[in-house]
């Protein structure tokens, strides 16, 4: 499977590393040249320095044969643009976005991103699953006068 990860911050780095360990073919795209150099020392030649939300750059990545493009930058707008380009111009079958602001999830889905994942929402869901039903207090009930 060929996966392009856009954004070489902590999330993108660990994701690319784990995908490599699973045996997937991975390309990690990082905009910052200094960060890209460091990532190359850690991960090897799978790192490309460039802007993942520019169509001309993406056309040099082999994106037309990618199975997945995952946008994991810290900027929702960059993630959305990158994945719209991947989906609409290069016909990538699966796009996944890291969404920093949970309010943007709906927008991502409306605009064609296959999966929009918010760490905030995942953490809240995990917390809510751990709260036993008996700890949730029912709202105050009106008192019925008895005679």
Main attributes of the structure:
single chain; 147 residues; alpha/beta; Rossmann fold; 41% helix; globular
Describe this structure as you would to a colleague.
- By secondary structure, this protein is an alpha/beta fold.
- It has one domain: Rossmann fold (3-Layer(aba) Sandwich).
- Helix content is 41%, strand content 18%.
- It contains 6 helices and 6 strands.
- It has a 6-stranded parallel β-sheet, with helices on both faces.
- Helix 2 links the parallel strand 2 and strand 3.
- It is globular.
Residue-averaged pLDDT, rounded? 92
Q: Strand order of the main beta sheet, please?
A: 3-2-1-4-5-6
* Low-confidence parts: none
The overall strand count is 6
Name of the top-level CATH class: Alpha Beta
Strand content: 15-25%
Quick description:
With 147 residues, the chain is an alpha/beta fold. The chain contains six helices and six strands; from the N terminus they run βαβαβαβαβαβα.
Q: Secondary-structure map with pairings?
A:
Elements: E1 2-6, H1 10-22, E2 25-30, H2 33-43, E3 47-49, H3 55-58, E4 68-71, H4 76-90, E5 94-98, H5 105-110, E6 115-117, H6 119-130
Parallel strand pairs: 1-2, 1-4, 2-3, 4-5, 5-6
């Amino acid at each position: 499977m060929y996966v392009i990860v856009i954004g070489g911050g902590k999330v993108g780095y660990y994701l690319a590393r784990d995908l490599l360990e699973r045996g997937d073919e991975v390309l990690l795209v990082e905009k910052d040249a200094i960060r890209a150099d460091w990532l190359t020392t850690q991960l090897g030649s799978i790192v490309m320095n460039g802007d993942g939300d520019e169509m001309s750059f993406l056309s040099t990545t082999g994106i037309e044969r990618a199975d997945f493009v995952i946008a994991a930058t810290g900027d929702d707008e960059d993630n959305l643009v990158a994945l719209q380009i991947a989906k609409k111009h290069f016909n990538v079958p699966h796009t996944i976005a890291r969404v920093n602001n949970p309010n943007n999830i709906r927008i991502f889905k409306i605009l064609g991103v296959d999966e929009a994942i918010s760490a905030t929402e995942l953490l809240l869901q995990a917390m809510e699953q751990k709260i036993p039903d008996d700890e949730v207090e029912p709202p105050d009930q009106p008192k019925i006068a008895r005679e």
